Amino acid sequence: MKNIFKNIYNYRELLKTNIKKEIRGKYKHSFLGVLWSFLNPLLQLAVYAIIFPLILKDAQENYVIFLCVALIPWTFFSTVVTQSAAVIINNSNIIKKVYFPREILPISVVTSATVNFLISTIIILFFILFYRAGFSWYIVFYPFILLIQYLLSLGISFLISSLTVYLRDLEHLIGVAIMMLFYATPIAYSSDSIPGEFQFIMRLNPMAYIIDAYRDIFYYQTMPELKSLGILLIITIALVVIGYIVFNKLQKGFAEEL
Amino acid sequence: MSTNSDVAIEVDHVYKTFNVFYDKTNTIKEKLLFWNRSKKEVREILNDINLEIKKGEVVGLIGVNGSGKSTLLKLMTKIIYPNKGKIETYGKLTSLLELGAGFHPDFSGRENIYFNASIFGLTRKEIDKRLDQIIEFSELEGFIDNPVRTYSSGMYMRLAFSVAINVDAEILLVDEILSVGDQHFQEKCFQKIEQLKEEGKTIVIVTHSMNSVTRFCTRAVWLHEGRIKMDGNVKEITDTYIKETA
Fold first, then answer.
1. What is the pLDDT of residues B212-227, one digit of tens each?
2. How many CB atoms neighbour CB A224 within 10 A?
3. Chain B residues within 8 A (CB-CB) of chain A?
4. Do A13 and B101 touch (CB under 8 A)?
5. Which of A35, A134, A233, B80 is least surrounded by Cβ atoms within 10 Å, i.e. has the fewest?
6. Does residue A19 contact residue A105 with C-beta atoms inside 8 Å?
7. What local confidence, expressed as pLDDT, does residue B35 receive?
8. Which of A16, A100, A255 is facing B80, going by the closest CB pair?
9. Of the listed ranges A201-210, B118-127, B183-192, the one predicted with least confidence
10. Quick check: is A44 in a domain?
């Protein structure tokens, strides 16, 4: 246990350069560069903010804020999942040649996405200011919700990144799964607008709790459901442990399988 | 399992097999449909290897092609893992297996030094401290800020070797790369290895050149068809080896 952290700590420089590369390298050859971290979610937000009020019968007031407090954490989540599926395969050339703690790769995927998410949070704050919706002190729960989402992402990243090496179809399956999960998560609509017989989907979907919590603190300006968040925290910690064990078992065959 | 502090590498009853697939099933569909149909051949690479390398020893691993030398080296670096048995290494380890792993062609030589050295587990401070030394050793002062893609293959190898050799590892694994660059640079590499040997580093060299073995090594290990055929005195083993394989 202590060894795991010591090993990662010893390779902290590699972790740092990897995270930087991931953030900067993404937009390296594009004209607008890092500005795309803002433009991408903004354009996506614009599309949804125009379309969904047209389809939904009773759109929420301040729909843009309602949508963006959910869409931006969702983008964080879906980026982690899609990038995790490719990260080991994309780095196969170094995996086959040198030793370094392989868990550096999923950790840097999740961490760089977290940095991007922190930057995108400015968009949320901007819209709240723009529409003069105001802030409440419940915002102090933001780091706590982020921590849960970080752990959830890390656990999933460990599992997906290592499993895809052995089951290459997973990479394609994940695109569809993410799309389905988008509609099964209260992003474009609120969680209580779901009919009773489908509520179980919300209760089984960890992202639903996280999105609801963000929405509670930014949009409804109420106390997030601390009890369910607490349970979720314990579940995500367990997920990280299981994910790490699976990853560690499977990483031994990476060099041969790639 | 000995925990002697003078042991650097411990190879304990190690077996390694490779599965050679004729047609590999990699998709879920194929795995479900043909789960028992994929033709594979299990090839034994290493068979019950036991080896204890002490600190400060310079070991020459010799053997014909396909005898498992490189596989054993890869196992020691933890790029691959044994099917059975255990390998322990004590101390910071660097391998000069595949030089220039992770070099990015668009980045400059200097940036690649940072990136490559970080793969070897160095921190930024440690790299800063060694930077001049690495550049000097590579003799690439005039090109160090050019992108690596503009380098000739010799320059590329020189840079890669300079990073790896200056990492300050306690254990150094070298695979047949003493043929880096021209005569002059090769001689320099030899001298560097001599120097590291005098500093008491543990070195394992895989090579076909009996000259290098007799020049550097304090011990020779002869691998044949995945087993250790001879282990010990350099002179005796290289002589027998040359006689038998000639």
1. 888 888 898 988 888 8
2. 21
3. 18, 26-29, 31, 74, 77-81, 93, 95, 97-98, 101-102, 114-115, 117-124, 127
4. no
5. A134
6. no
7. 63
8. A255
9. B183-192
10. no
- Classify the complex by whether its ipTM is higher than 0.85, answering yes or no: no
Of B28, B80, B98, the CB nearest to A256: B80
- Whole-angstrom distance, CA of residue B15 vs CA of residue B45: 8
- For CA atoms B196, B197, B200, B205, the dihedral sign is positive
| Best to test chain A binding among B79, B94, B175 (most A CBs inside 10 Å) | B79
Distance from CA of A91 to the nearest CA of B (A): 9
Q: Which residue of A has its CA nearest to B102?
A: A94
- The per-residue pLDDT for B119 is 85
Tokens 């919706």, residue?
A133
Which segments of B169-233 does DSSP mark as H helices, in order? 183-198, 210-216
Characterize the bridge pairing of strands B40-54 and B7-21. antiparallel
pLDDT (0 to 100) of residue A241: 96
pLDDT of residue B185: 81
**Is position A5 within any domain?**
no
Q: Is there a domain that residue A14 lies in?
A: no
Number of domains present in the structure of chain A: 1
Q: Measure in Å the smallest separation between the Cα of A162 and chain B Cα atoms.
A: 14
pLDDT recorded at residue B26 = 64
Domain housing A245: 58-257
**SS3 call for B214:** helix
Q: Is residue A30 part of a domain?
A: no
- Confidence check: pLDDT of B99 > 80: no
